[in-house]
Design a protein that fits this description.
single chain, about 375 residues, alpha+beta, Hypothetical Oxidoreductase Yiak, Chain: A, domain 1, Ribosomal Protein S8, Chain: A, domain 1, Wheat Germ Agglutinin (Isolectin 2), domain 1, 3 domains, seven-stranded mixed sheet
Length: about 375
């Protein structure tokens, strides 16, 4: 039966795995915290469920888990950082905090990261800036070749996420965290774990027809992520909008933008060009983009926060179409889920538990996830 595990146990399980792989304790703590917070906020696709993919990369020799972020060049407001082929979480916490440090001194800070791997949820890092009173902007390239451009039959882009976090006063920060595809690959993975059919429009086959069987859809996406020919001679995730009639060109354009800032600016890989030529142990060289803006460089921070509150308050006061579903702003659903999961626990479906036990077995460590006590 599926269980709900405490955040403490989930953090411990992730930490045990990463430590067994040889990651230093401080980097383990940073990575585990990012992954647990992601699960707490309901982004189940990017938290502990990523351990299976990280395990595969570790065993392929792609990850350099002892590497620390190395700043290669820096001015007063920009820096380029080498992740050293480690997981993306440590360098991303370093990157956004470095951007915040520069912004506090000069009004703006921009950090470009290369030679990284998957970093989890972009919104986690944008939130770190907002918690310090600054605006955070995060974008990233992606490894997978999963998103079908508007008018195309085969995937070319990744899910290429972007996130924006803006501090408020009496309200929680506005946090917009999104893939530039209709959904993330991991969301399809979660549906397959739970044996739920996909909503029509998330994934299309090579003829543009919707794929609602989650297992088949995930197979299409996984073949694209590895650079092999996709099943069904094409298909993949749709850009935001889903179809040309519903303006999928907007999601397509945002996806290209996220890659250009996250990948091209940092000198990172573009998967369709680089995956066919890489060796079996080569790092994935994913790129990230972090920007922090200090409202104090523009005006009184209190006045800015008051204006942000006014916008959020008016949105909250807007008459809802369904009285039982009030109008929310970005970030609030995640905040609500986090509060609930701190009490009720993080869901661990049976299929996920089985795969996590396999990871633990290969690492020769204890599987510690159990139902939350209450």
């Amino acid at each position: 039966m599926p269980i709900h595990a405490s955040a403490t146990d989930v953090r411990r399980q992730i930490s045990l795995v990463l430590s067994a792989w040889g990651m230093p304790d401080d980097l383990v703590a940073t990575t585990a915290e990012a992954m647990v917070e992601t699960d707490l906020m309901g982004v189940d696709s990017h938290g502990i469920s990523m351990l299976m993919q990280y395990d595969a990369k570790y065993r392929e020799g792609r990850l350099k888990l002892t590497a620390r972020p190395e700043t290669e060049n820096r001015t007063a407001v920009i820096a380029r950082v080498n992740a050293g082929a480690n997981l993306g979480h440590p360098v991303s916490v370093h990157g956004i905090n470095l951007a915040v440090e520069m912004a506090k001194a000069a009004g703006v800070g921009v950090v470009s990261v290369h030679n990284s791997h998957h970093f989890g949820a972009a919104g986690y890092y944008a939130r770190l800036a907002a918690e310090q009173g600054l605006i955070g902007i995060v974008m990233s390239s992606a490894r997978g070749i999963t998103v079908v451009p508007t008018r195309a039959a085969t995937p070319v882009l990744g899910t290429n996420p972007m996130a924006f976090a803006i501090p408020a006063g009496h309200n929680r920060p506005f946090v917009l965290d999104m893939a530039t595809s209709t959904v993330a690959v991991g969301r399809v993975k979660v549906y397959s774990f739970n044996e739920k059919p996909l909503p029509a429009g998330w994934v299309a086959d090579g003829r543009g027809n919707p794929v609602t069987d989650a297992t088949r859809a995930f197979a299409i996406l996984m073949s694209g992520r590895s650079g092999r020919d996709v099943v069904d001679d094409g298909g993949g995730l749709t850009p935001i909008g889903g179809t040309p009639d519903l303006s999928s060109h907007k999601g397509y354009g945002l996806g290209v933008l996220a890659h250009l800032l996250g990948g091209a600016l940092s000198g990172s890989n573009f998967s369709p060009l680089d995956i066919p030529n890489e060796g079996p142990t080569d790092p994935e060289n994913i790129g990230h983009f972090f920007m922090a803006l200090d409202p104090a460089a523009f005006r009184s921070p209190d006045d800015f926060a008051n204006d942000v509150d006014n916008v959020i308050d008016i949105l909250h006061e807007t008459q809802p179409a369904d009285p039982d579903k009030p109008v929310l702003v970005a970030g609030e659903p995640e905040d609500a889920i986090r509060a609930q999961r701190l009490v009720d626990g993080i869901p661990i479906p049976d299929a996920l538990a089985s795969q996590l036990k396999d990871v633990c077995g290969r690492a020769n460590i204890e599987y510690v996830l159990k139902p939350i006590e209450g």
